[in-house]
Amino acid sequence: MKFPYCHHLHSSPDQKAPALEIQGLGVSYSSEDKFALKDFDISVPAGSSLALVGPNGAGKSTLFKAVCGLLPVRSGSIRVFGHPLGACHHRVVYLPQRSEIDWNFPISVLDLVVMGRYVYLGWFAKPQKNDIEIARHSLNEMNVLDLAHRQISKLSGGQQQRVLIARALAQNADLLLLDEPLNAVDVTTRQTVGDVLHKIKAQGKTVIVATHYYDQEEGRYDKAIFLKDGKKVEDANLHENTGHKDCDCP
Amino acid sequence: MIHYLTDPFQYIFIQRAVIAAVIIGVLCAALGTFVVLRRMAVVGHALTHSALPGLVIAYLLGGSLFAGALIATVVTALGIGFLARDESVYEDTLVGMVPNIMFAFGILLISTSRSFRDLFSMLFGNILGVTDGDLHLIMLIAAVSLLALFLFYKELKLFTVDPNYAKTIGLPVKAMHYGILLFLSFTVVVGIQAVGTVLTNALLVIPVAAARLLTDRLGRMMALSCVFAVFSAIGGIYLSYYFGSASGASIVMCASMIFAAAWGYKFFKKSMR
User: Fold this and answer.
1) B147 inside 8 A of chain A by CB
2) Rounded distance, CA A228 to CA A54, Å?
3) Residues of A in contact with B155 (CB under 8 A)
């Protein structure tokens, strides 16, 4: 018997619907009038990859947090695989910026990655052999299986990032929201993350990456959206070669 | 030599005190692990001080001290959580402010009643005065709290290390926060019986801090904290028996000595590398 975390039943994705469809979205961090994201529209087809490009404070993380239910939606609507927010928890995974994790918490890397399986376990159930195996497989994908039993405070920045992505992989979600996965990481990590993103996309999953290092990553995405001060500045469909390559980034 | 260890146990009240102190110690250490890791040690401090007016009102009305303390701490815990929703007053400001108001209110009530007789045991505890009824209540609260910790261990772990991820997978993080505050209130009220309002926070924090120095695994840390709490509880009662010292303060001093030893061991190990 299962006791899921959310009162919503886990809905199966609507195969014909876009992975993410947002209309007229407005989000703010407090009840003040200043919107961190305003009148934002987007439709991301399932199986595609998208770069959200913009400087710090442009609204990239805000968008992710709204899609994950971490921030309340002040106006507009968000649909994930055709369902309203909350119905597809298990199908969406958010990779936070590294600074949002308590890296001094006394657990091992494997324990942290197994947490990616909790959404399937629900209340009272303990991780099973299968969950541990999936977590180990994800660590292997990110080339950090040898760190499985290391305490998380003893990881370098690049290793932390790979471990967090391994946790996201362990959730086996269909929509991945990755917030600055390549920020301040070493060349090896950059390469590994790039390869894994490629593999994920080949599996038919949807990937949205927030970045402000766009010029180095352009070839990886089907489309880019440029954000500034909480508003969409421009769309660039990269496969149609629009010629837009500039990013108003620091 | 062995009679020094067994002599105190010829008295029923000592037997009761040891059982109560061990249960309270284990409960404080187990819950204290999450209190420390969630950086809520100051909240524990706030709740312990907030119990005083509840104790005094119950004492003046001739009611249950336990119920008085419980109501005062639960109201404070939930009140801080509620007031903190207005972001213009930071939660740590409230945590620094509310307990002082409550503590002052408690002292004010005692001073107007002109009866300071039981103030000492309220402030510093009286584990040697535990009755059978108290013991049953302590056991009940400990059983419920430890069961909750066991059942929600996995979720508490995730909620502490990465609250945002916990929320994204549907965990009711607000309810969990209030739940921790509620169980913290129960634990504080039980702890007050042993070491009083002033020192209860020490039981929540010191054994955990000592354990954290020696291990970087959550399960081991919790187990070690409980062992340290048990040693502190029993050691404190022996000290109290043989030297006539205040039982609550003796328990806390034992815990402090364990912390000092753990710190010394870690420092020694580091310098040997």
Assistant:
1) no
2) 6
3) 5, 118, 123
